[in-house]
Task: structure prediction
Amino acid sequence: FAEGPSAEEARAAGADVVGGDELIEEIRKGGGKLSFDKCIATPMFMPRLSKVARILGPRGLMPNPKLGSVTNDVSGAVKAAKSGRVDFKIDKTAIVHVGLGKINFSEESLRENIGAFVNALLLAKPVGLKKTSKYVGYVKKFTLSST
Result:
């Protein structure tokens, strides 16, 4: 969601769908049909997105400054999203669910994705977690399954 120079910047960075108020109206009137799976917005659009928050929110598409999807650096955010950036968070039982690949990925690609995820997970470890070792007790079990 961008207008003017930011919209041109997003198009140049490779964004599939770029729009402003007309895109918000399209989402509102489209009955929940969306033509995108990631959503990035400039800060000036956040108040306007409240009109479609009930559509974007439950699908996890509502832009969020903590996740870097509300930014003035539109090209950087678009390039990060296009390169396959995955955001993860834990549920209330402290379990992290994340998609690490598709069934048609090569074994090497899956290994790279799993390694990158585990590295990111360990780097996101809270400082105040009380254990003697740096990682003991932080990850107790790792389960991988195809769905």
